[in-house]
Amino acid sequence: MSDEEDYMSDKFLSGDVRPSLVQQSKSKRELALEDQKKEHIKRQKQESRLRKGIVDAKTLEESLKKPIEKHNKGFQMLAKMGYRPGQALGSKRSCNLEEKRLLEPIPISVKSDRGGLGREAALLDLSEKRRQIREKQIRDRLGGEEVSVEQFRKRAQLKAEERFAIGALKYKIPDVVSYLAKHLTWKTELK
């Protein structure tokens, strides 16, 4: 009996012999259609992102690392005005110090939401105003006195310790009572 004929050999077991393999053609077809549908949905999402102009960070980083090509219309316009690769834009006369001239382009940030250009700054201003209003309300409640950060932290720590102690006592009192009942003998004498 050779190694090839042995049913316990590696060659015999090398095939896919999982018990969960689909053997019926109808089930195989359903699984294949499901896989095709998933691929189609994935492709549609990618195409939709490209149509909307949404670029992921990886693609953006790769495209920004590449230099502008010579046949690019923007590069050709810059070259007509005297730009050479590796040099800063603008004439040396326009700046007193050469350190002020930029060699790298200004970084871009891709906006993928529909909030508008000034929305982030407006939200920051709004949150700052809300914070100031809250501070004023707290000062009014405390009688107008200024509370330092250290005092606030100390008070918060004391409150947390108090809540912990109350919680620990709430769960430990029945244990303490049962311990005392077991280990202490109460003798009452009736007279």
Automatic annotation (TrEMBL):
Pfam families given in the database record: G-patch (PF01585)
GO function term, MF aspect, one: nucleic acid binding
Composition skew (Basic and acidic residues), residue ranges: 27-50
Protein name: Coiled-coil domain-containing protein 75
Signal peptide bounds: none
Top-level taxon in the UniProt lineage: Eukaryota
GO CC annotation, single: kinetochore
Chain's gene name: CCD75
Domain G-patch residues, every copy: 70-122
Region called Disordered, residue ranges: 1-50
